Amino acid sequence: MTSDAAGPQPAHHIAQLNIGILLADRDDTLIAEFMAALDPINAIADASPGFVWRLVTPEGNATAIRPFDDERILVNMSVRESIETLEAFTCRSAHTPYIGRRREWFQSFESRLMVLCWVPAGHIPDVEEAKARLMLPERDGPTPEAFTYRHPFPPPRTPPAHEVEP
To answer: How many angstroms separate the Cα of 99 from the Cα of each of 20, 35, 62, 93?
Structure first.
């Protein structure tokens, strides 16, 4: 978890879940380059500004987690300090070229692939919570409870200490 001694810590962090359906099994040569990149890209993610947490197993990634019936569905969950720090890692780091190549390894499908939501600082969402939020924008459209980069919402307002009732 990062700690920034300069200034107050945010009351909320941004959580993200994204999923993908592999074109082949994890041990297939078609997926080998993607699987080989996981450790180095995860190390960059963990060291990047704004990193708070990411879903991992003892292997150091989340590929062994199977929250869906299809064995080829991979999940990626993380928490960052802000949308800006999440976007910087996703869109302006060594991770970015892999986003551009996702169709080499993953099927395209019509349902929701990713969701963002604000969580109280210190809260680590579990996979079931994230799965429930994944379907909300499809059902209800983007809302403060579940949204996308294209339709973001600001973090919930936290009243100043003098406004909080005892």
So the answer is: 11, 14, 17, 11
Q: Which of 93, 124, 105 is nearest to 20 (CA)?
A: 105
Which residues of the chain are under the pLDDT cut of 50?
1-4, 162-164, 166
Token pair for 26: 């994890």
All domains of the chain, ordered by start, with CATH? 12-159 (3.30.70.100)
CA distance 78 to 92: 17
| pTM (predicted TM-score) | 0.86
Mean residue pLDDT of the chain comes to 89
Residue pLDDT, tens place only, 55-65: 999 888 899 99
20, HSE (Cβ side, Cα atoms, 13 Å): 19
